Amino acid sequence: MIQKFKFTHLDLPDAYLIKPFISTDDRGAFIKDYSKEAFEKNNIAYDIAEVFYTISKKGVIRAIHFQKVMEQPKLVRCIKGRIYDVIVDLRPKSPTFKQWRGFYLSEENNFELLIPKNFGHGYLVLEDSVVSYKCAERFYGEYDTGIMWNDETININWPLEEIGGKKI
Fold it and tell me: Is 34 an active-site residue?
């Protein structure tokens, strides 16, 4: 039996906002945030190569990061706290090249983002947070690169006022 996941295809190609399977009762909750079978049933081929977590304090911006070679698709979920997560299409021939979208991910809403290869990804930490990355390619430090959080050609509208910062 496939537990119910809700897949919302975003207006950036191959990117999805996903509501995982959640079952709650008086004891607490059970959350399944990945099922190969559920993904395949929704025509999404996604195999996990490695899983890691970041632990970040409120106010941290993890700028737009990606791998230029051995591109690294990611399934990202905030399992503790709250973040404003941004994805950017970095494919030069794409009609949505350099377009970005932002999403609030939190332990309350349990949403996760499926970020395709050749996309950048970053986030602003709105509360002390733990973020889970389920990557379809392993991390290669020699190919890791990034874009400044305030890059003027992408012009991301970060909600800095939510951490006491000034709007840029």
Answer: no
121 catalytic? Reply is no
User: Is 13 within 8 Å of 73 (Cβ atoms)?
Assistant: no
CATH number for 29: 2.60.120.10
CA gyration radius, the chain: 16
Q: Which residue of the set 46, 65, 104, 143 is catalytic?
A: 65
- Rounded-to-integer distance, Cα 69 and Cα 62, Å: 20
Catalytic residue among 16, 34, 84, 133: 133
Per-residue pLDDT of the chain in tens (168 residues, 90 and over written 9)? 567 999 999 999 999 999 999 999 999 999 999 999 999 999 999 999 999 999 999 999 999 999 888 899 999 999 999 999 999 999 999 999 999 999 999 999 999 999 999 999 999 999 999 999 999 999 988 988 999 999 999 999 999 988 776 554
Q: Can you give the residue range of the structural domain that contains 108?
A: 6-158
Q: Which pTM does this prediction carry?
A: 0.92
How far apart, in whole angstroms, are the C-alpha atoms of residue 125 and residue 163?
Answer: 8
Query: Has residue 165 been placed in a domain?
Result: no
